[in-house]
Known about the structure:
With about 290 residues, the chain is an alpha+beta fold.
Amino acid sequence: MQRDQLADFLRRRRAAIRPADVGIAEGPRRRTVGLRREEVARLAGMSVDYVVRLEQGRSSQPSTQLLGALARALRLSDDERDHLFHLAGQQPPPSVGTARLARAGLLRLLDLIDDTPAVVLSDLGEVLAQNRASVLLTGDHSGFAGDRRYVAYRWFTEPAARAVHPPAEHERHARQLVADLRAVAGRRPDDPTVNGLVGRLRAASGEFRRLWAEHEVAVRRMDRKTLVHPRVGPLVMDCETLVTPDQGQLLLVLTPADVEARERLDLLRVLGVQEFATRAPRSADARPR
């Protein structure tokens, strides 16, 4: 671990980010160049004290989870992210296969469209990042571990995962998930991560085995689906998908398909603001999620 170099890199990257780049209003009295330490801490989900110790070269070795959170908070490019891991004495995430960190450009897009539900996914359907509107609409999907990280695995093994869609759309959504996974398996035929996930799904779900055997292939693009929220009811949403050139990650953006969905989404934003205002402040020594 290169503590002094790590501290210098973190300080310089923090100073290089404009608050507006991460959805923070600068205000007329702001004197700090770039982000404040408390803002980095909030974006990364860690304590301010830990950020201070990192920037002063006094911290213990950061975990890969913590480094990933810092890379997202500081909007690091892939090269900068790898450099961060190397300075901390950790192995960077693999550059091939399923990337576990959302790309910096996609994170910036999430910040720009914060009022519109949007999520960054890996090609295997692992949620890599969500904006606030997405969390309000579908819940926080960032804390899953193991095979539960993948949307398809939860869909075919956990009945509760289907509550977000009305029963009439279940068959179509299941087919879409399988057809998209087929396309990924075709692009990455020798990838043990893909083959392992498919094998475990075939063992766990008869429905998945039936649909997999039909060999339907379709890449996520434009779609219209109904999302059922427990507080505001069903919302018909248009889904637009932007895919990175290597097809390894995608940005899914959901916009209201009609006036009723738009009104319910507006109500959901208001409810979210009210809940945030009444929520107790986070402990100062909170650790990364």
